[in-house]
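If you are new to this repository, start here. Below is one unmodified record pulled from the training split, so you can see the exact layout before writing a loader.
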Amino acid sequence: MKDDDAPTSTDSFDDFVRSRSAALLRSAYLLTTDRHAAEDLLQEVLERLYAKWRRARAAPDTYARKIMVNRAIDRWRLRGRRPEATLTDGAGPSAADHADDVATRQAVLGALRALPPRQRAAVVLRYLDDLSEAETAQAMGCSVGAVKSHTARGLTRLRELADLGPVERDALPATGARTSPMIRRIP
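And here is the target side for that same chain:
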């Protein structure tokens, strides 16, 4: 680490981590669709952000999201678009039945897995993280027009998946590309 990149105060970095790590973890989870991979991704993002804190502290959230998108795309490239192995918690069933919530969540994650990396990043940042087109373009390192294109294609693909019947969805590749009518709610 260069001296000019070192944080001048760890308090400001610590405050950023405390205030934004939950939202960044949510974004990482939506990009990776796996809790453990999301935690690893967030850790990488925070390490890189810390190393560049002097430059990033003016707009740390934007800088963190840009790192996150780039690292997530690198991970997708490295694994050849194969889904990462998911680990299960050893926890037993809870008192309340959340089966519908779990099924919906799995359907949304499966639909997101079916999207190419850039489309997934655009949809997650625009509609699930509620960033503007300009903020999304900055985070993805592309133009606003490219964000519009990736978002439109991603939403079209999600709608196509929502319109598939159960038999057709079962014929999709094993990347978990299953979905539910909830996807239709995405604009």
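Two things worth knowing about this chain: The first helix runs from residue 10 to 32. Residues 20 and 134 are 20 Å apart (CA to CA).
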